[in-house]
Amino acid sequence: MAEFIKLYEKGTDMRKIDQIISCLKDGGVIIYPTDTVYGLGCDIHNTRAVERICQIKGIKPNKNNFSFICYDLSHISDYAKVSNAAFKLMKKALPGPFTFVLDGNNKVPKVLAQGKKTVGIRIPDNEITRLIVKELGNPIITTSIRDEDDIVEYSTDPELIFEKFQNVVDIVIDGGFGNNIPSTIVDATSDDFEVIRQGLGELEEFL
After folding, report:
1. Burial class of 151 by CB neighbour count within 10 A (0 to 12, 13 to 18, 19+)
2. What's the whole-model pTM score?
3. pLDDT value for 11
4. What CA–CA distance (Å, rounded) separates 27 from 161?
5. Rounded CA gap, 185 and 193, in Å?
6. Among 56, 134, 159, 203, which is disulfide-ready with 71 (CB 3.0 to 4.6 Å)?
């Protein structure tokens, strides 16, 4: 059964963060807050954990577009090719409710790169999740938690999320109520930036 860990964006308890890092390094799967919806994630370098997430969501790794959560822009060139124009735009818009789709490079873990040339990059405006990634030392995978409810697409209450996922993940982080609008996805593989999915972020503010 998962552990339910309460964290706050200000004055975060580093012992709890260390516990979460140990879990991720051991191949754990966690549910965590972002600046949009709650996410399901693991260490991007742990193939077994990636496969677990695919099982939980009923998807195949090579058929699904996973995104990475990075701490800041310095990690991005490790995994993706980014033009000067895209970098300038991301610098203005991030941290924020956007996922930028970029061409991946050969450092993207094989389990995620099969049959795909692009990666999604997220730097959410949420100190809890960014701190976890910073302390881990590399990105975590992110995929949204969807609700089976026809009206509410995304689960927002961490206690209800815990009830639903407690037997399939290792840790559920309670960072307060989540949003039910996902991130705005932007195709930045060329400098003709295109919104693929309109979510919480308004790209026009940064162009």
Report:
1. exposed
2. 0.93
3. 81
4. 21
5. 10
6. 134
